[in-house]
Structure formats: structure tokens, C-alpha cells
Amino acid sequence: MPDEEVAGTVRLDEAYSRCEAINREHGRSYYLATRLLPAHKRRHVHALYGFTRWTDDIVDDWADEPVEVRQRRLDEWGGALASALATGHTDDPLLPAVVDTVRIHGLDTQDFDAFLRSMAMDLKVNEYETYDDLLAYMEGSAAVIGTMMLPILGIVPGADPEIARASARELGFAFQLTNFIRDVREDLERGRVYLPAEDLARFGVDRGTLRADAERGRAGPAVRDLVAYECRRARAHYAAAVPGLALLEPRSRICIRAAYLLYGGILREVQRRGYDVMGGRARVPRRRRAAMVVAAASNRLFTRWGA
Q1: CATH topology assigned to domain 125-307
Q2: Which of 113, 141, 202, 285 is most buried, by the most CB atoms less than 10 A from its CB?
């Protein structure tokens, strides 16, 4: 379907610009990595980010509203997407870019459904008993982001698409778990604990322990041991993602390598702080972020930085 059937040319450009603005404002590491993509790919990545961020904000930014109200907003948003995909028309200022991206790259709309289901879980589920339970949530919140991105990024001729797909999923898990590790205190303030309950119990941690450490602004030994354990688990996902990076188209490969290093850098910063996630949000210093972007373009430097 031509762009004009999705939206007028100016409006479509405005929708892409809106998505880019959302990415630039909220996705510090992610936005920096996307700047390495060719412009014709970059706008579609912005569209996916804009959609996922806007959905996440429905769940979190209206936290003072009753769950039923936020669920209704989420249902309406999902309905607006379904209608736009079916008809090619929408009054929403953001969705034209999403619809355009889905149609140009043939994205699987079931991935969007899975993402919306995971976001709905955040309205009802505030903890996960096992890591398998958390993986089921991350299947929709993270793995499908990888599979949605893959057709946009592209793979080199002759590459095994299944290896590339598995790698994209693993990287989604790695990025999501990195966020959960970094944001333990912030999520706790929202009433959520993403780190599995069985892991907390293994290290003698419960919600009371987390709240006490958060109130004093410093993680105790038990929480530090817990976080170190989860960091090792995240690194296993990063390692599992590496084989597929070489299969991406060259410019896309540099972009995803940069994202790999930038998000992995958050784990390094957590480690540098002695796994204390209660004393402030771990951020990669600007100068180091710049060095990581440079390293992404070199096989030798990427291997060294990513080790």
C-alpha cells in the first residue's frame, strides 16, 4: 500500500519525526547506536522505539490512575494499531510511522501482540517466581523487539536467518535484563521486583531487604551478591548473541555492536560500583560511550571491549 494511503506525506514525515524525538529523549544509549545506521533504516528503528516507549508510558506514566483505566488505555492503543494496520488510516500522530514500517519490512504483527500482552502483565504482575517465569514475560517485552528489528537491519546474503533470529532474541533478553539490574530501585518504587523471587531467596533477600537498602541509598552484601549473580546471567545472554552479529549487514552490524557495548557498559558500571544498584542509577560516562561507538566499527576493538 502506498505511503499516501497510510498518511499524507507531510504527516508521515511528522510521525517519523515524533518517534525520533521520543527515542532521542528517552533512549540515550539506544539513540546513540541508531545514529550509526543509514537514514533509510534509522527512521524505521525510531518508529519501533516510539511505539514501544509510548506503550510503556501508558503503563507507567499514569501510575496514579486505577489499573482498570490504564488497561483501557492500553486496549484502546492496541485497537488503534490494529485498525491502522487493517485500514491504512489513523488519526494518531505516531502510528503512521509504525504502520509504514510494518508494511515496508513485512514485520510480523503477532510480535506487536506479544509485546502488548507483556505490557498488560505489568498492570497485574509485580514479581516473578522463577527465571523461566521472567523469560516468559521478556519473550514479549524484549525478544520480539529483536525479531521486529531484524528485517530492518538486514542480514548478509547466504547468512542463516535462524542463527540471526536467535541472536536477536538473545540480545533482547540481555538488554532487558540489564535494564532490570540497573533499575532495581526505580522498579521497587513502582511496586515491582523483576529479579526472580527464587533468586532473592537464594541470597537471603526479600522486599523488606530491598526497601531498607533503597531507603539508606546503599546496597548491603546480600543484595550485592544477588545483583552480581544476575549480571553473570545477563552476560550469558550477551555471549549467546555474538554469533549473529557477524551476519548483519555491515552498517547495521556496527550499530548493533555499539548497542551491545553500550548496554554491556552498564553492567560494567554496576560491577565497578561493587554491584550497588541502590546508590544511584548506573550510567556509562559520556567519554566512554564515545569510545565504545568507535570500537564498534573495528573487529579487534569490539572483541577487546566486548570481552
Answers
A1: Farnesyl Diphosphate Synthase (1.10.600)
A2: 141
